[in-house]
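Students often ask what a holo structure prediction actually looks like on paper. The answer is less mysterious than it sounds. You provide the chain, you provide the ligand, and the output is a string of discrete structure tokens encoding the 3D arrangement of the protein together with flavin-adenine dinucleotide.
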Amino acid sequence: MIKILVIGSGFGGIYSVKSLLKKFKNKEDIDITLISKQNYFLFTPLLHEVATGTIATKNVIEPIREIIKSSNFHFIEAEVNKIDFNKKLVFYDNKRIDYDYLIIAIGAKANYYGIKEAEKYTTNLKTINDAINIKNRIINALEKASKTQHKDWLNFIVVGGGPTGVELIAEMYDFVSQALERNYKKLEMNKVNFYLIQKDNSLIPLFNEKTRNNTIKKLKEKNIKVLTSTQVTKVAKDYVETNNKDKIYAKTIIWTSGVTPNKIEAIPKEVLHPSSHFKVNEFLEIEKTKDAFAIGDCALFFNKGTIKPIPALAQVAVSQAKHVVKNIKLKIENKKLQSYKFIPEGYLLSIGYGYATGNVGNFTISGFFAWWLWRTIYLFKLIGLTNKLKVAFDWTINLITRRRDTTKI
Ligand SMILES: Cc1cc2nc3c(=O)[nH]c(=O)nc-3n(C[C@H](O)[C@H](O)[C@H](O)COP(=O)(O)OP(=O)(O)OC[C@H]3O[C@@H](n4cnc5c(N)ncnc54)[C@H](O)[C@@H]3O)c2cc1C
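The corresponding structure tokens follow.
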């Protein structure tokens, strides 16, 4: 029996298991186990729509035991706290499990860059709970604003101008403006302020210049104040301070400024970079180990001849998962492994209702068609037919009624 163990049930982990089941179909001597802290898969690309009331919470998560049903597949809900790469053992809950091949896909968490108060006073957008918290904070701010005169309840700050920050703030604008129009008629939209704070000199550095310009233009149309080359140096309960010594007051502060890899408590130091990413070679094998691979946000990978690491994206985790499974099969067959290279599928981002921009191949697209394409792509990428149908239903209802969920739970 060949035992293959996968850690993490995000994009990397789930697509590893799916590819393993496909590659080793009808092979009864292959045993696949997935260990993860959470018993569901979370579709992060639509999380900002959960945070702003367009998509119902449960429609972007899918239980693992529903997604994968196979007699040679086992799921363990647990947090891995130690790995012994020499003895090929993984430890969790005072138990251990051995493996022949290991795939680590433990992802990443919010990076607060040492600003402790940021963790305390801001909300991130990484988990399903974060999305629920953001929606609650926005609705709470509107409820408070409608009974007090304190203008800070109508100020909203997003720190971090990457794709997540841009998509989120644009949806927040649409959410608040629709909510005011329908439910909070005494509040005026011209009293609401949105700030997007980015430490680099441009937003979404991963995208091409044309997309970046389209993004700035669209955010400005929405009256979102974009502060580039501005670093948040201090966070308090109701304000942030920047490197320019400005204080910006807001009761709702969201933090989407970068990620740092999740850590497994007991792990040999030599397998990690100082950044806590796993060190991997061209085949995605973890350096100084045998038959262990790391993929997705927890691994640092450079395409050959490049000096910038490839981005932390779902499309990277998925393509690496498929590649690693191919390499495990080659290993089992005693064949030469294949080098991995990341080839982007294109980058698209939505900027509120009815508008998206990005590049597909050599073309930069923008506008309603791009937004329709963005929605169609993600609808097809959602795991599970039920969730596809439910999200399509949520979108259709929103399209007809322009109503979003404004319940604080
Ligand atoms: C709001 C948002 C929007 C995004 N939009 C896009 C997009 O549009 N397109 C795109 O390409 N990418 C997008 N991304 C990035 C994408 O989500 C990540 O790159 C991707 O999830 C990485 O996959 P992963 O498998 O490495 O990690 P994850 O998906 O984060 O999964 C990690 C898994 O490991 C588990 N885990 C962690 N530690 C342990 C442990 N010690 N023991 C057991 N289990 C553990 C976690 O519970 C989780 O199941 C977005 C991210 C966010 C937050």
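The chain is about 30% helix and 25% strand.
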